[in-house]
Amino acid sequence: MCRIALYAAVGSPKGLGELVESFVEASLNDFVLRSYRGERRSHNHGWGFAYVQGLLGDLSFMHFKTSLPIPCAREVLVIPKHFDWLSLILHSRLTSREPIDVLSSHPFYVSIPGRLSLWLAHNGALDKARLAKELSMEGLVDAYADSYFLAHWLARNVEKPSTDQLEKAIRRLIELGVVETSLNFVALILGEREKETLCAVLNYVCGRALGAYDYYKLYRVLVGDKASVVASSTIALYMEGLYGYEIDPLENGELLAVSPRKGEIAITSRKLL
Questions:
Q1: SS3 sequence, 15-83?
Q2: How many domains does the chain have?
Q3: Suppose 268 and one of 15, 200, 209, 257 were both cysteines; which one would form an S-S bond, judging by CB atoms 3.0 to 4.6 Å apart?
Q4: How is the chain classified by DSSP, letter by letter?
């Protein structure tokens, strides 16, 4: 069980400080998860982030993850204050069945040379043995978390940063029947030849997770027309309660593609259910 978020902006980091603070608070004290399981609940099994930045016609990116608890986020998560555009994903982890080590921490990074780079953070449970078999990676099942194989699946099945191709790959994945609870994810896809970036968010909850849908569901946080935030329930509710932002839940089965470039944020919504 995890907390995830995506941030995209052009020009200035509006709302980013509030997102980071809410991400830390939600990870330390997840009152939504507590309502289902009781007692104080922390996502303290590792955390990480990745971002791609456009500045002066060039790109830069950063990827960090650790198995250490979340409180160090405020010291480590240093984001540029000046950029043409920025795409960022965040993840904190609470696991019950996978190892607590840096190899299992998110985001996962996959590079397909000459085609794309992908960073992905996921909340949910997948049939990783079946997914690994589809990828001919059976020998790695015991070494990596299920989300590792999800990242490889998407990287192999998307040729470039394209909403149409991403939707097609997700539909194929769902048809395989590997989703046990949730396919909720945030991803950055960088076309290595085109130097274009696509941010993607999927809200897809099924099976036994539907009984805890308020925990799994993702929200858009309305921070203005130059920035876009999508976050797990607890993060969004902290942003609403602490900073007064309006929030709007995504529908189950909704895929958002967010593209920050040329001074504006382009958002495309697709319904998979």
A1: CHHHHHHHHHHHHHCCHHHHHHHCCCCCCCCCEEEEEEEEECCEEEEEEEEECCCHHHHHHHCCCCCCC
A2: 1
A3: 257
A4: -EEEEEEEEESS-TTHHHHHHHHHHHHH--HHHHHHH-S-----S-EEEEEEEEETTEEEEEEEEESS-GGGHHHH----S--SEEEEEEEEE--SSS--SGGGSS-EEEEETTTEEEEEEEES-B-HHHHHHHTT-GGGTTTS-HHHHHHHHHHHH-SSS-HHHHHHHHHHHHHTT-BSSB-EEEEEEEETTTTEEEEEEEE-B-GGGGGGHHHH-EEEEE--TTEEEEEEHHHHHHHHHHH--EEEEPPTTEEEEEEEETTEEEEEEEE--
**Structural domain boundaries, residue 73:** 2-271
Q: What is the pLDDT of residues 78-103, one digit of tens each?
A: 777 789 999 999 999 988 777 788 98
pLDDT at 250 over 80: yes
Bond from prior residue into 69 cis (ω within 30 degrees of 0) = no
Give the CATH number, domain containing residue 174.
3.60.20.10
Q: What is the pLDDT of residues 154-211, one digit of tens each?
A: 999 999 999 999 999 999 999 999 999 999 999 999 998 888 899 999 999 999 999 9
Tell me how far apart the alpha carbons of residues 27 and 42 are, in angstroms, rounded to a whole number.
6
What spatial distance separates the first Cα and last Cα of the chain, rounded to whole Å? 23
CA 268 from chain centre, in angstroms, equals 17
